[in-house]
Amino acid sequence: MKECIAVVQDAVIHMKDDVIIDAVKKCLAEGLSPIQIIEEGLSGGLDVVGQKFEAGEYYLAELIMAGDVVTEATGMLKDKMDPGDMGKKGKVILATVKGDVHDIGKNIVAMILSAQGYEVVDLGVDVASEKIVAAVSETGIQLLGLSILLTTMVPAIKEVVDLLTAKGLRKKVKIAIGGACCSQQLADEMGVDAFGESAVAAVDIFDRFKKELEIA
Ligand code: B12
């Protein structure tokens, strides 16, 4: 691992908000891309924070502080990303499912999709399934991304799928899921169209969805 990435990870793991911006700037100066810094440095650091939380070494306060450090860094990196031709590729609805307030990953997905030419309609966190389906129905947007980190909230995915089916909209919409508790197996079980393990994967998935919808 590059030294500057290790410094970014360390700043996240130890919640050093006075260090994070300089650490990120150093990575940029060494030629690393914002995406590399996010995926390897910031997400890598948060993975360790999650492990420490699970081990009982960190508590909720540490999760909050580490999350704030990452949010500060992504805010700065957002300005460094090429905004692309915003909206050129069409619109995507993003939401974190009901009961789940994790939004760092969703916001990174939104940031990278925007930089790659999508217009993102971000419904936020803890979004009721009915609200997600109403947004699809009212806007006619055919691309939907759901973020889920809590295992306990997984049933919300199926709820969205079932509500879309009940409204006769399921076949018109392509759905991707992502977040710490997701997998391809879960995507298959929930009846959604794809699982993406990263924000970069999200771009490939929505590009593929667009082509499939054009052919259909
Ligand atoms: C930071 C954090 C928090 C912060 C969140 C701050 C915020 N603004 O988001 C706070 C303090 C709020 C929090 C709260 C809780 N948390 Co928390 N949290 C985390 C932590 C450490 C990091 C999450 C994160 O941001 N990761 C970095 C981002 C970039 O990764 P990501 O979300 O996975 O997103 C990437 C990909 O998955 C993908 N992606 C994400 N979404 C999507 C969507 C699509 C469509 C696609 C294609 C791709 C995609 O792209 C992203 C970028 O590459 C994780 C540990 C972990 N390793 O995940 C625990 C973790 C998720 N939390 C956990 C828990 C238990 C909780 C609490 C219940 C704790 C408590 N006792 O209160 C609460 C729940 C609150 C709620 N109702 O939601 C558990 C969940 C266990 C489980 N399997 O259910 C974890 C796994 C920690 C652990 N190991 O135990 N948490």
Automatic annotation (TrEMBL):
Recall the taxonomic lineage recorded for the source organism.
Bacteria, Pseudomonadati, Thermodesulfobacteriota, Desulfobacteria, Desulfobacterales
Give the record's GO biological process terms.
Answer: homocysteine metabolic process; tetrahydrofolate metabolic process
Q: Where is the B12-binding N-terminal domain?
A: 1-89
Record protein name field: Cobalamin B12-binding domain protein
| A GO CC term attached to the entry | cytosol
- PROSITE patterns xref list: B12_BINDING (PS51332), B12_BINDING_NTER (PS51337)
Q: Which family does it belong to?
A: Belongs to the methylamine corrinoid protein family.
SMART domains, alphabetized: B12-binding_2
Q: Which organism is it from?
A: Desulfosudis oleivorans (strain DSM 6200 / JCM 39069 / Hxd3) (Desulfococcus oleovorans)
The protein's matches in PANTHER family, at most eight in alphabetical order, are given as:
METHIONINE SYNTHASE
**What keywords appear on the UniProt entry?**
Cobalt, Metal-binding
